């Protein structure tokens, strides 16, 4: 008789059995629907967690804004509202331009026409501002300002677009690879932590990302869902986000998103049409909700444009940016080095970018995962073509987009075709966003092909839930080619920076670890260790992009948190129609905007006619002032003289005794002492390291 101890499982066997049971339970939990789409838990689990995190951050008034830059001027000691990281001065579009205009809107009660500039500016066009206008329904990120305190409104504006991009990328990824929510979640987070998004972190940058992935999801759900309503919901979301994106009026980020969406969607459509036993008519009918959503979006945008056509004409009629077009093949070797510099991006967080570009934002680079996976994708494509006599159209579309993007950047003399594709509406630095989007697409497509088993004779997407796939791995040699691309690009960038004696190499040595992370990640993804590969990509993204923006509680409000701001506010309250000029740096300009003063300072999306008629009655300097630019004043003599140090900065000389000042200006705010016979000092305020003078213009 066998002893009981002889049949007792060994500890290793119990552990193995537990592991097998856990794996089986996981597979049951992530099992897709009969249609091949992800089940409800997989579909909503990650988005719900992300939403809860955002709700907590909004309730606490925490965002990533860099308005803490002002603490360096007015504060002493450590900023109590800075929770992590450091404010980024280079992100002045966020903390100086848009935040100042937002606070100005709050002060004025969210008007459709902001009166900070003489003659007013259309707030529904300029700088994505909150207004009591019907168009705000399609700008959900600004609605928070209308109903919540400023701090919570800013948190909504910060987190809502990135939440939308995060969820849209995740849902697209699990739609393509429904059994892999961990991989999809890691990819979505890595996308949002890319230096491209973090250094350009604005709604105008992020909504196109959400729109592109929502549109791709709508196409896939239309084809794969056994019920109509999921496709209708996704189509409606795509139409809504189309309006949201277009109302930002910043085309350079719409173009890369549109190129990726259209190309990959065509790939999915052709794949569907080439699937045996799938009628063309039924396929095209499935796209009717998306077509209706597109028509509806065009109608809303048309009404919006027609009701503010004069403003749009003024924007398009500017000297800069006007209808700016980029030439093909305009990128030089330095731009290519910058494009592949993601492993070196940690140095940007310390303000070091010499050898990569002029500043951190322009130097921001994508992780280029899509390009590094090209060997694996080519292998998948060729194997399917040989064994199944079938073209993998989505993979082909991914490769085609990569070819077109590099051709636009490097190959000259095909401007007419590039214009037809709208590529010339973007720029070298903005077009890079497409590579980050393609990274998610490439990993998802590769994962789906490997999980389904490359070379299967059954078309992809037709496997039943109970059918056990025969997964495939890319051969080691091919996977190694991808790693070689990673390391080769790092060598090229390193050599270029070393030849220039760039301080980037010494500012941070993290590039070595990021290079290894990306190389191993590419091999892991090709060998179908997909969750591990995606987590490695995420780790690389955390290193190069995770510390770009700070965590900041609230918004530094110059009108209420500074003595000078309160002094200006008192004068504004007493003399609401008085007009101001701010002389010096950025602080006077921002303070006048945030206190609700009517001034000649600030960033104009288009030139206010009344303001420039007063400054330049003859119109002789129109080539300087007819542009999107920051208008700032310097101490000068005589009538206003305009200077253009860079294409988006207008400097104007101010003399209190000039006919312009005598007719139009009552007060001056300066960050330097101004010696002017027609100015009388009202008050000098010193707070922290900043001194500001308030003057009154005396009539002669």
Structure description:
This protein is of the alpha+beta class. The chain has 33 helices and 14 strands. A five-stranded mixed β-sheet has the order 7-6-12-14-13. Helix 7 packs across helix 8 and helix 10 runs parallel beside helix 12. The chain is elongated and about 90 Å long.
Mean pLDDT: 93
Which structural class do you get from the secondary structure elements? alpha+beta
Anisotropy-based shape: elongated
The count of DSSP E runs of length 2 or more, i.e. the number of strands, is 14
Sequence stretches where pLDDT stays below 50 over 5 or more residues: 457-468
The helical percent reads 55-70%
Any descriptors?
700 residues; alpha+beta; 5-stranded mixed β-sheet; 4-stranded mixed β-sheet; 14 strands; 9% strand; elongated
Give the arrangement of secondary structure elements.
Layout: H1 4-7, H2 11-29, H3 40-59, E1 62-63, H4 71-74, E2 82-84, H5 92-108, E3 113-114, E4 121-122, H6 140-147, H7 150-176, H8 181-192, H9 195-199, H10 203-224, H11 228-246, H12 251-273, H13 280-286, H14 288-306, H15 309-316, H16 333-339, H17 360-363, H18 369-372, H19 374-388, H20 393-410, H21 415-420, H22 428-431, H23 433-452, H24 476-499, H25 504-507, H26 510-526, H27 530-545, E5 551-553, H28 558-561, H29 563-574, E6 579-583, H30 586-594, E7 598-599, E8 602-604, H31 609-615, H32 622-625, E9 629-635, E10 642-646, E11 649-654, H33 659-664, E12 667-670, E13 679-687, E14 690-697
Parallel strand pairs: 6-7, 6-12, 9-11
Antiparallel strand pairs: 1-5, 2-5, 3-4, 8-9, 10-11, 12-14, 13-14
